[in-house]
Amino acid sequence: MNSGVVMDFFIVLFERFIDKFIGLYSNSWQEILFFMAILMLVFTLLMLVEVVKSGYEGSTLRRLLRLERNIVNDLISFLITHSSLMVFLAAIMSLGSTHIIAKGIRDLLSFDLSLYLPGFLHFIVFFVVLDFFNYWVHRFMHEVPYLWHIHKYHHSAVEMNFVTVSRDHPVERAIGVLATALAIGLTGVPSENYVLFSLLFSTYGFLKHGSFNLSWGWFGKYVFQSPKDHWIHHSNLKEHCDKNYANNFAVWDHVFGTYYQGDVINKKIGLPSEDFSKHNIFQLIWCFYWDFIMSIYFSIRRKAMVVFNKIKV
Ligand SMILES: [Zn+2]
Ligand SMILES: [Zn+2]
After folding, report:
1. pTM of the prediction?
2. DSSP readout, 99-158?
């Protein structure tokens, strides 16, 4: 048995584990390939529109042709995200914990609004509930110090292009499984066609990370977060980075007071004091993961010392 066969065995084992216990990832290889083919078509068309609308300088096409470290990292991240490798990494790096909690949530909560609502309405309710949880996951990622180590991965991009949307750390994906499980537990699994929906929102994700700089007026401010507002979220100014957490619906930022109301424009993307442009994607995934584990370890050790000293006294 060579190491490739062993690896394949573990990947299959983990996929079965997740399919059996969670049931959230059930796409076949054929479905994934079909989805990727359509996505590539949309991606190519959008790339051409971006060049026409916003110019070649700063466009995704130019970055792809120059193939610098940042976009190579984004491309590898895109491949990982859209393959079963992400499921595997998410399960391994979270030690299976979030998947097991997700199963607990789904066992505990089993409301099914499809019994009361027509298909499309049920789907909308599910999507709004999921987006609400994703707002809070994103906010916790910024405001809980352990989790910020993980989310830094998304913000480590030093320039933006369509593919930056895929820069999600496997642990962030694993935590995202909890948000999905909660939304499913509270509303039921929608029966609507997910492929069209996924395509629409992948396109929206590309738009938000491209150089379109669109604000979409009131629609971008209050309904769907505009590309301009997501650029503000990626800005390397601290007051920008901790604003505009919405994944889709901008309204959450208004309701919970995190919408950026100022008018400071900053074109620089990334983190204020650190430059990750020289690291490859695997170094980034690993170093942020290590910081995450060590910050939890030191926090537990500090608390244990306090308890230990109290007992001694
Ligand atoms: Zn963020
Ligand atoms: Zn982003």
Report:
1. 0.85
2. HHHHHHHHHH----GGGTS-HHHHHHHHHHHHHHHHHHHHHHHHHSHHHHHHHHHHHT-S
